[in-house]
Amino acid sequence: MFGTGSDREVDTIVIGAGQAGLATGYHLARRGQEIALLDASKAVGASWRDRWDSLRLFTPVGFDSLPGLPFPGPRREHPTKDQVADYLAGYAQRFALPVMLDTRVQAVRREGRGFGVATTRRCWRANSVIIATGAHHTPSIPRLADQLDLGVVQLHSSTFRGPTQLPAGQVLVIGAGNSGAEIALDLATDPTTKREVHLAGRDVGYIPNLGPLTFQILQQFGRAGAVLAQQGLRGHGDPLGRIRPGQLEATGVQRHPRVTGVRDGMPLLANGRVLSVAAVIWCTGSRPDYRWLQLDVLNTAGHLRHRGGVVQGSPGLYTVGLPYQRSITSHLLGGVGTDAHHVAKKLLTRAAPR
Description:
354 residues, alpha/beta, 23% helix, globular
């Protein structure tokens, strides 16, 4: 897998060519680094195009720009997923970033002071590696899903595209964060099919509707704000950004407490009620999958050990785009550029001649 004479050598490998990878590539390329951005998708922005049809960002256009290129459109509008995909593709083209598509990373290991990176196309060698794949790789679905009646159609938010995937009858969306709330609203307002829509899960609250300024203020809280937010949320999801208080109820979405089990093949709520539904959509998040990292850099939960994007225990390894990496907005389109700049500075400081 490693060590062939045809290995390509560059200064830095960036794994992932989404918003985090592109922003990082921008900062490194303009400072003279020879880089390569490796992405498993067949097109830049594909991860956005492959999500559900009605998806819009919960951050407004005024807070959706990557470094060097403003996001087009009125500042208070919320762009669609395809507009985001178009913007990312245009960004890569505008700055001539060396993106290698359809290139899945299979392994990363230490080689001397640098790294060897094996992919489905070729092997690479680099002094530094930046992981820009985010933290959401594998759908996280509770075990009780296996106990539901076989006649209940089940989808995860990552495979949901639109109402036509679902049979007639009641549908339960499990998980009341941004994804769950947006999907429930999509189903409740679908003009082609009238169905009862239920949304189960903890009330995560709302971000004040102050436009782009809200997210700029949140970003200024920095690491301290990120720590406080994580402690307050305790893994229960970010506050709702685009949906306003009362909007779900106004469209007929029925709110419920969390699902605690299954009774007679149907979801059992914390208040003891059983919902007889035809379909369930799991909006329960995803978990990281770094099995291709042949390095001792993960904690017991499978997350990268890092400090502000500098991975601990492996000099030359970095990460960008993780939730709450350096601020509350680190994983957002408009917030990732600040972290990318920080990580690029750390990398270049290490790479500078002594």
